[in-house]
Amino acid sequence: MTTRHAITAGFVPLLDSALLVVAREMGFAEEQAIDLTLLRERSWASIRDRLAVRHVDVAHILGPMPIACNLGLNVPAPDMIVPMALGLGGNAVTVSPALWQMMADNGATAGLDARANGGALRKAIELRSGAPLRFGVVHPYSGHNYELRYWLAASGIDPDRDIEIVVLPPPDMGDALAEGVIDGYCAGEPWNTFGVLRRGGHLATVKAAIWRSSPEKVLGVNARWGEANPEAMAALLVALHQASLWCARPENHEALAALLAKPAYVGRDAELLLPALNGTLPVGGGEMRAVRDFFVPNAKAATFPWKSHALWFYTQMVRWRQIEHTADRQRIAAETYRPDIYRAALKQLGIAMPSASAKVEGALTVETPVGSSGALTLGPDGFFDGGRFDPDDVDAYIASQSSG
Amino acid sequence: MKPSGLNVLVIDENRIRAAIIEEGLRDAGFDQLTVIDNMHGLARRIADLNPDVIVIDLENPNRDMLESMFQLSRAVKRPIAMFVDKSDEASIEAAVEAGVSAYIVDGLKQERVRPILKMAISRFNAFSRLSRELEETRGELESRKVIDRAKGLLMRSRGLSEDEAYALLRRTAMNQNRKIVEIAQSLITAASLLDPGGKQ
User: Residue B181 sits in a domain of what CATH number?
Assistant: First the structure.
């Protein structure tokens, strides 16, 4: 007889909570004999606190946050492990109509191209006077903060001097934009689609254009719970893998949007959730654009917890002076992500998995078959500026970014 | 000894709860106290107030913004934020259980901060107890109304006295192992189905 597992998972009402929601609602958790309870939270701080005091065992969490916990940057700081990612991509940068007009006057197009539109933003900043532009992100230790800063810096904009970056709750960003409190924001879905369709915003670029196939939310596990309940954790990874396959099928997108629209989950209209799932987004002014790999729940090893992703997040913490680099801290960051647990849990399924635990990020310009336990293609995974991150040479990467 | 000298900020979207916390802290001698229940322009107001301790409800979505303020202030070598103390798991747990979170400027001695957090926790708990009791009272009132209507139906349709009608409801409930209010509700539903035009 199978042992039943009771697991409580925290989540924040966002599109990429989909894997956890689908695991529960479509029976994938039940198939693994898991009683999966989902707890909805309104802030990442609250997710972290509930992980720390064991109100939740695991959570949908910002990729850099478990690393920040293990580095002692967050308090209370539960020891965390990341045995799985919850998809790739999913974010975008939305700007106000006024800023979009200035960018368009300086060469920005609706094509969402990170290089062209970043250059247009730089010119707009050079030409305007008065208080610096203000952009919103969701948390200091977030993919949003780092990809926005990466895009700005590579476009010749100093994210600390030329603009001001503030933290806001995602559901408030559209209103803050409409009221002129901020000029732009980098957030997950449905908050860009909401900003464009309901608050007159315009997409400037997307995460997939800044860094294709890049990491975003992960499954954060309280390490003490994970160590005490390895079978439950493995069963959950299998359920989430099945959920990721379900989420990836285009024929399920409408049902998924309807499911996430329920008040217990994201609680917003399905029409705001569907564009990101279909990869065709409203960009503003009634125009739509197809974005390759906007949000990837399953393909390209989208749920594999790459150590190179953890290390890239770490280099950005160093770059933006959230922490000083030491070899010890680098090791803690890399060890937070646990591809070994992922492999062990999913081996029984006979699916294609990467044989390496880290890769050179930004090296693949086209879809590439890779050495793995099955047929697997990765990429393209390029940074828009052609940058590369070699996880075996973290020091050099940090040095190259601090000299700029 | 006067506990204060500390600049305490309470942030709570729930005005009633904010008032309950404020009263508790003032009674305990914390008179440098500000309460914010409207989140508009929160960052600016916190910067202006420059509090030593911030007490905020755990569910407040602006907590991520608060954390960024403290993270930024660390970058410029100003005091940093702490959740009581990293090692004080019991306090953290009690705070999270109660639904309160506290941000405390680094360098403050724990014994200066603990009474604030203890007071906040006890006031948060008192508030949830109050809400629960209110909810229960509301439920009881609702039940009483339903039972009164069912009694009226029985009195009219079967010519029973009020006591007899109640006794019948209670006996039926006991026999069926259900609550009196459930039997009363069934009776009202049945009556409205049988006589949709009648007043019930």
Answer: 1.10.10.10
ipTM score assigned to the predicted complex: 0.88
pLDDT for B78: 35
Q: Given this model, what pLDDT does residue B85 score?
A: 55
Q: For chains A and B, count residue pairs whose Cβ atoms are closer than 8 Å.
A: 72
**Angstrom distance (rounded) from CA A240 to CA A84:** 9
User: DSSP states of A277-313 as a string?
Assistant: HHTEEEEETTEEEE-TTSEESSTTTTT---HHHHHHH
Q: Any CB–CB contact under 8 A between B13 and chain A?
A: no
CATH classification of the domain holding B68:
3.40.50
Closest CA to B50 of B61, B65, B30, B34: B34
Q: What is the pLDDT of residues A11-35, one digit of tens each?
A: 999 999 999 999 999 999 999 999 9
Angstroms from A54 CA to nearest CA on chain B = 9
Q: Model confidence over A103-134: pLDDT tens digits?
A: 999 999 999 999 999 999 999 999 998 889 99
Does residue B121 sit in the same domain as residue B50?
Answer: yes
Q: What is the pTM of this model?
A: 0.87
Q: Identify all chain B residues contacting A139, using CB atoms and an 8 Å cutoff.
A: 64, 67-68
Cα three-residue angle A110-A114-A117, rounded to 5 degrees: 55
Q: Find where tokens 């509090």 sit.
A: B51
Per residue in A335-384, pLDDT (tens digit) is 999 999 999 999 999 998 998 999 999 988 888 888 666 678 887 888 99
Q: Which CATH architecture has domain A92-210?
A: 3-Layer(aba) Sandwich (3.40)
Taking the C-alpha atoms of residue A372 and residue A128, their distance in angstroms, rounded to an integer, is 51
- The CA-based angle A95-A310-A228, given to 5 degrees, is 120
pLDDT: which is higher, A330 or B70:
A330
Chain B nearest CA to A160, separation (Å): 11
B160 shares a domain with B141: yes
Q: Among B71, B81, B96, select the one facing A53 at the smallest CB separation.
A: B96
Residue A71 pLDDT more than 90?
A: yes
Q: Which CATH code, of 1.10.3720.10, 3.40.630.30, 3.10.180.10, 3.40.190.10, is assigned to A5-88+215-267+296-344?
A: 3.40.190.10
Domains: count for chain B: 2
